[in-house]
Specification:
Elements (H helix, E strand, L loop, with lengths): L3 E6 L6 H7 L1 E4 L1 E5 L2 E5 L8 H9 L4 E4 L3 H13 L3 E6 L7 H15 L5 E5 L4 H16 L4 H11 L3 E6 L4 H5 L5 H10 L1 E7 L5 E8 L1 H15 L7 E6 L3 H15 L3 E6 L2 H7 L4 E6 L4
Parallel strand pairs: 1-2, 1-6, 6-7, 11-12
Antiparallel strand pairs: 3-4, 3-5, 8-9, 8-13, 9-10, 11-13
Helix pairs in contact: 3-4, 5-6, 9-10
Length: 290
Amino acid sequence: MSNYILITDSSADLTERMVKELDVEVLPLTFTIKGKSRQNWPDNRDMSPKAFYKLLREGEMATTAAVNVADVIEKVEPYLKDGQDVLMLSFSSGLSATCNSAQIAAQELGEKYPERKFFVVDTLCASLGQGLLVWHAAQRRAAGESIEAVRAWTEEHKLNLCHWFTVDDLHFLKRGGRVSAATAMVGTMLSIKPVLHVDDEGHLIKVGTARGRKASLRALVDHMAQTAIDPGEQTIFISHGDCEEDAKAVAEDVKARFGVKTVVINNVGPVIGAHSGPGTVALFFLGTSR
């Protein structure tokens, strides 16, 4: 394997098992709920997804914090000092200041270790969309590609990483300013569910609605039908906000419609879940465009 380290942050929502299998390092982001700050680790050591979403359903609010420059330096510097190069695939700059912190850290560390390489890619991705880009990067590293080649591939293809979301409760999107209070109230009364995606600038954007939960889940797969590149040959990722059965239903739809063989399902972590809420389902794949 090529001698460089792949790092991402915990908003990628990779499972602990995948982190080990892919041989990637994860920088944890921070979330605060019930007055206590916790770190979002892949092994959920500070709080389980079940416990987190239970608190949200009970009316608790959660806030999140980006990684700061010192956090990135603390994580990366030991590798550079040890003679290894680092490629970091960061949470979308359209949703977090984490990438900016990483870029500042890269500049500082570049001056201190001029003989080493520390590259930061603004993935413009979130949740398992970011995780899927990391997965592809890890496959390419395992195949022997250089740090420059993997960096170039991720920069070239990150806008092919399609994100399609729906949520069950508009309250959380209202609180985050994604929908108006009136839209949330009417939508809740009429069981209208938003369909959202992450755009080319890495922002979460509402692009449509569906009447009822089943229709909104079907809409995610309909969007995949419009843009997916050779879907039957892809590994597809699906994340969910404590609604695994709905995620499994989307997985079965994807398999039935496109012949997809491999689907990876995991929780939406607290960094994204604080803003999207319980009942979120998101579908990620490579497409011709977002």
